[in-house]
């Protein structure tokens, strides 16, 4: 695995791959890798001849009161995991390498960036789309792999790629869960044992919605009310949002007649967790 810390180095490594007519995949991450990330790497390896992974805890997508300084960092472990998976190129730049002059140029997907997590975390998606555009320009990948767990991020990135004509295929990979159903997330590491138990309410609320949908309920208001009853039984978890939306526009859907996204975010202690499921006819 070639380890690169500068933009010219990683650009040259990626161009060499593509000069050999190999299809290049990019898996952008913020490190603290878990099985969810590794599933992206495996999907990338199955679909492309060479895989690049980036590890960069991107400061511009964290708000001033968020967890940038305590975000888990475990570079040596991450590097070993990626080596084992047979990753070809690892890009792990410093903040100065990526933002040498601060940042005054932004990529913003208007509207979409203010929905779901974008409403709760102002500026978050502007930071995500800016870094993802930079990573696309630096690596010039043929395909990029993202987790379905970050469904709103996926919608924002897909729209950016479409609007800015990036020649990149965006591949979404299924949510990977712990054995008890908790969606894998680097932030799960913040949970103490009691919080870890309480966090399962996110998955339970989504299962309740799936159950009522399978039984024939199609009205979003009814489904949301059923989910909120599940949350009411776990009062120490504070619901941020529970929404039923179009997966592309993230606009609320009143009656479900096609593929629809059910997305939830909640605070378990001070840790904000997200999860989602898709309702399909
Ligand atoms: O999903 C993430 O880990 C981050 O938002 C991403 C896409 C790597 C951008 O920093």
Concise structural overview:
The chain has 281 residues and is of the alpha/beta class. Helix content is 38%, strand content 20%. A six-stranded parallel beta sheet has the order 1-4-3-2-5-6, with helices on both faces. A three-stranded antiparallel beta sheet has the order 7-8-9.
How do the strands and helices of this protein lay out in sequence?
Layout: E1 2-4, H1 7-19, E2 24-29, H2 35-47, E3 50-55, H3 75-84, E4 89-91, H4 95-98, H5 117-120, H6 124-139, E5 143-147, H7 151-163, E6 169-173, H8 193-198, H9 200-214, H10 220-232, E7 237-245, E8 260-268, E9 271-279
Parallel strand pairs: 1-4, 2-3, 2-5, 3-4, 5-6
Antiparallel strand pairs: 7-8, 8-9
Helix pairs in contact: 6-7, 9-10
The structure holds pantoate (PAF).
Pantoate is lined by residues 28-30, 58, 61, 128, 131-132, 150, 153.
How would you sum up the major sheet?
Answer: 6 strands, parallel
Bound molecules: pantoate
What does the average pLDDT come to? 97
CATH architecture of the largest domain: 3-Layer(aba) Sandwich
Strand content: 15-25%
Poorly predicted regions are: none
Tell me the domain tally: 2
What is the CA-atom radius of gyration, in angstroms?
Answer: 19 Å
CATH superfamily of the largest domain: HUPs
Percent helix, as a range, is: 25-40%
Order of helices and strands: EHEHEHEHHHEHEHHHEEE
| Gross geometry | globular
């Amino acid at each position: 695995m070639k380890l690169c810390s500068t933009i010219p180095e990683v650009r040259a490594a990626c161009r060499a791959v593509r000069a050999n007519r190999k299809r290049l995949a990019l898996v952008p991450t913020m490190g603290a890798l878990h099985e969810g990330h590794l599933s992206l790497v495996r999907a990338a390896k199955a679909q492309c001849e060479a895989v690049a992974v980036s590890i960069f805890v991107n400061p511009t997508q964290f708000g001033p009161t968020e967890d940038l300084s305590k975000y888990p960092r475990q570079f040596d472990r991450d590097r070993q995991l990626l080596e084992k998976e047979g990753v070809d190129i690892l890009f792990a730049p410093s903040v100065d390498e990526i933002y040498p002059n601060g940042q005054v140029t932004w990529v913003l997907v208007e509207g979409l960036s203010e929905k779901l997590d974008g409403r709760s975390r102002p500026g978050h998606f502007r930071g995500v789309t800016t870094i993802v555009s930079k990573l696309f320009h630096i690596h010039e990948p043929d395909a990029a792999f993202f987790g379905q767990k970050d469904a709103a991020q996926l919608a924002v990135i897909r729209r950016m790629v479409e609007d800015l004509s990036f020649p990149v295929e965006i591949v979404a990979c299924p949510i990977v869960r712990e054995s008890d159903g908790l969606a894998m997330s680097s932030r799960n590491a913040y949970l103490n044992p009691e919080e870890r138990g309480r966090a399962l309410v996110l998955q339970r609320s989504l299962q309740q919605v799936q159950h009522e949908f399978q039984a024939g309920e199609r009205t979003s208001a009814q489904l949301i009310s059923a989910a909120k009853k599940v949350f009411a039984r776990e009062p120490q978890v504070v619901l941020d949002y529970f929404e039923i939306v179009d997966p592309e526009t993230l606009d609320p859907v009143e009656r479900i007649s096609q593929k629809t996204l059910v997305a939830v975010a909640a605070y378990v202690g001070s840790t904000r967790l997200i999860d989602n499921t898709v309702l399909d006819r």
